[in-house]
Amino acid sequence: MPIANDGSAERQYLELIEEILTNGVYRDDRTGVGTYSIHGATMRFDLSEGHIPVLTTKKTGYKLAIKEMLWFLSGETNIRPLLRSGVSIWSDWPHQKYVKATGEDIPMDVFEARILAEDNFAERWGDLGPVYGSQWRRWKGADGAEHDQLSALVEQIKTNPNSRRLLFHGWNVAEVDEMALPPCHLLYQYFVADGRLSSTVYQRSVDVGLGLPFNIIGASILLRMLAQQCDLEPGELFWVGHDVHIYANHAESLTIQRGRSPREFPKLHFRRRPESLFQYEIDDFEVTGYAPHPAISMAVAV
Fold first, then answer.
1. pLDDT for 174-195, tens place per residue?
2. 245 phi and psi, to 5 degrees?
3. Which domain holds residue 24?
4. pLDDT per residue over 229-256, tens digit each?
5. Is residue 261 part of a domain?
6. Per the structure, how many domains does the chain have?
């Protein structure tokens, strides 16, 4: 059963931090930072009363997570639209690629300014390859045809809600090597019962400090949008992680967060119902009742 939204739900996250810091295995990793890791974790979040899992034990930029999800749904793979909306969370990968390719170690703010100002620069250096949006909206088949998984999902939920194939994923084996970052939250599956839409999200790799708070917001936002578009009530989000880890340079910050008392999750209200899943804008989302503890800074491992 889903866990109540009186603070109990967020305790799942805090207990996950404790589990990893206490029993996690130290491992070297792709970034060179090092992680404390465990194999396998789950959490459940009840979305039925409008609550969404925005962590309260640290101030979390939920608007950034919503904007990122809208960017995914647009099918876009260039960071330029994100920067135009004030989101820099994907800039590290193309910036690192630019520095390695050119030997010009320009500051991030200069790099981002050039992405915004110069069309040719943005086209060459701002693209991330066929990441989430490309796979979700334009999956390429062996015959060259493109498949819009999200449009197909909406249609299937409406016409065949009992199907066990209400899913989409992003691990396109043929294109993984072309991606700046292969998908971490790679599989979303949906379940309709008693007029409610629930989902399971599977992550192959989980950065507990920075990535996971955004991932559960994004998955919840998507579930709420799908429910609205398909005339269903929201149910629950069931989250599954495989390699669940804390970066070594996040351990101290997460220890501080672990000691804080969680509060009730905020609620999400829609200001309108767009004509399709792909026409939502940031102003359509109203989040109320969010009263978090202060922010905690953590560096991104690239």
1. 999 999 999 999 999 999 999 9
2. -140, 160
3. 8-59+166-174+182-288
4. 999 999 999 999 999 999 999 999 999 9
5. yes
6. 1
